[in-house]
Amino acid sequence: MARHAHGDANGASRLDRARLTVDVWRAKWADADAIAARRRRRLRDLLSFARRQSRFYRRHYADVPEGTTDLERFPPVTKPTLMANFDDVVTDTAVTRERVDAFLADDANVGRRLLGRYPVWTTSGTTGEPGVFLQDDAALHLVQVVPDRWIADAVLGLTPLYRILANDARGAEVAVAGGHFAGASGVALLARESRFLRDRLRLFSPTRPLDELVAAVDEFQPAFLVGYATVLLELARAQRDGRLDVSPALVSPTAEPITDAGKRELAAAFDCAVREVYAATECGFVAVECARGNRHVNTDWAILEPVDEQYERVPAGESSHTVLLTNLANRIQPIIRYDLGDSVTVHPDPCPCGSAFPAIDVEGRAGDVLRFQTADGDVPVFPLALSTVVEEVPGVRRAQIVRTAADALRVHIETAGDRTGDDVWTQVESDLQSFLAARGVTDVRVERAATPPQRDERSGKFRHVRSEID
């Protein structure tokens, strides 16, 4: 039997997308029972679809009785497992790992669709293993509309509306460029396919020197500012210092953890609302912050299960070891009880905003901003920018950068492919030194570690960039 995903799963029509949008908004103030009914119906459909259309899930669920929707009876999956079984996981026989790899190898395909249908996004391996994930039309549409139901109220006042109009509704996203990461590829896709957004959406890479980044954002004058929390905080400091003068209607930190104090700093510097978005390449609409400052899980379309080391459920109010994610929208590459690697805590009490959607705290993918003293003063180097330099070296499978002294970095790498470890290391060292030198950071020793990247012994988490000094 040919395995082709179809219907509103992978080829959503304009009417299908309109229905999805209406349902997203109708659910915002639905009660807990109505939200649960949506979740049960979508989960039942997803499980049935995955067992029919995915060879991997058919095998994986062989011991689970047909028809059951008790998620705890279904064995979890990990990123390495999904990647190792890629051809059997996907539900369209025209999609193969060989074809996907060829598509990803061509940078001209950034912002395009595989086979003209599927956006393909890659992860950098923050939790220890790089990944490749396809989106279908329904999942992609929800990435765009689900956050709006939490954010719209923040931009409806006279001042934010004036800023949106004055800045021509331009949107700036700070994310690593030059690859098929969700931020870069997503921005390129929207700009390519939307006439309205074509000149209004722009990507700003944190790999460029901070002064250049500040100048570029200042010139663009965005109405919406989205991106890595660590970089947004540096832009906020530039705004306070007078090096940046922008007036966004909304700031949305994402991709990295940010404290409440950090969000207050953003709000004060830009004098606008701040709404955090908790998303992943595997599911771009997991949770969004409400007006009361709580991150609400969009449980009508995504299921999060906080669990311990044995994948046993953790009660509300307790931090989990990891969390299992189920994306109820995506049919081309089903994500069901997927170990996301983050620690979350579900709030035991309802949010004061009145929403029935549960709220969570997230200890997400962490990394340290490294600050170096140069002749021109203090220079911050952002974790995702630094790690990307190493990960883009051919032959690097995983990397971890540890600052061991004011003038020393220790780099742990895991290699794969045909290149020798020495060849890979030579380029890693050269590229890191060039990256730092471009920012005025010189006389830093880059040392090769004798061990591969390591997880934190206490939390089990993997951090790309960390500092062992104050």
UniProtKB/TrEMBL annotation:
Positions of transmembrane segments: none
InterPro entries reported in the protein's UniProt record: ANL_N_sf (IPR042099), CapK_Type1_Caps_Biosynth (IPR053158)
Keywords from the UniProt entry: Ligase
Gene Ontology molecular function: ligase activity
Annotated stretches, region: Disordered: 448-470
PANTHER family per the UniProt record, alphabetical: CAPSULAR POLYSACCHARIDE BIOSYNTHESIS PROTEIN
Protein name as catalogued: Phenylacetate--CoA ligase family protein
Organism: Halobacterium litoreum
